[in-house]
Amino acid sequence: MTKKDQQDKERAMIIAYPLNDALYLNITNRCTNNCRFCIRETAGGVGYNLWLKQEPTAEEIIAFIGEPTRYREIVFCGYGEPLMRPEVVVEVSRYLKNYPVRVRLNTNGLADLFLGYDILPQLEGLIDVISISLNAGDAQSYQELTGTGFGTAAFDGVLNFIRRSKQVFPKVIASVVRYPGVDIEKAASLANALGVEFRVREFSE
Ligand code: SF4
Fold it and tell me: What share of the chain in percent tops pLDDT 90?
């Protein structure tokens, strides 16, 4: 294998990496939050080096996916917030719609605030599952845990995004990370009141 082939292979593994029977797409390292529990800040991360030297184009991502049906699920996640690149999420998920594979989007739920418009209509029919980081049970804790620059508007924005997602996607999950300062019971009852599935993710050091 030439040095160039090796570099291409390494880049492919940073952008599209398999975990169990799913393929995860790392399309950006940018995010408007700075969460205390962010996996980007942990030593081990997800077990791969996911720092991008250059963000991939939609065409590159599609090429790195290969045969989509090899996976049970394809997930937009990243070491960052996928909806920082809404046009790429739309283009790649539109391509994936040609295959019988489940498509999931993991997002921080702040797209209304950082994009300044409602992206949900563009994602309708393309995303099967949306997993939204609720992160906390109230606005004050949310702010402390995520370091958001949007102030108290952030938590309300996430709740609003969850409510609207319910009208758009077949499955909506609100998630928190098990971490000091996260009131899991409070967040769970909030998710319950919103009528969405609730999931606790374990903090990985
Ligand atoms: S929203 Fe996600 S990617 Fe962004 S800082 Fe928080 S944990 Fe990290």
Answer: 82
For 9-45, give one letter per residue: b (16+ CB within 10 A) or e: eebbebbbbeeeebbbbbbbbebbbebbbbbeeeeee
Q: Is the CB of 40 under 6 A from ligand 1?
A: yes
What's the fold here for domain 3-202? TIM Barrel (3.20.20)
Query: Does ligand 1 come within 6 angstroms of the Cβ of 34?
Result: yes
How far is the centre of ligand 1, averaged over its atoms, from the C-alpha of 39 (Å)?
A: 8
Is pLDDT above 80 for 92?
A: yes
Answer yes or no: is pLDDT of 46 > 70: no
Give the C-alpha distances (Å, rounded to integers) separating 38 from 14, 69, 173, 174, 176. Answer: 18, 30, 18, 16, 11
User: Helices H, strands E: what count in the chain?
Assistant: 8, 7
At 199, give phi and psi (nearest 5°). -135, 140
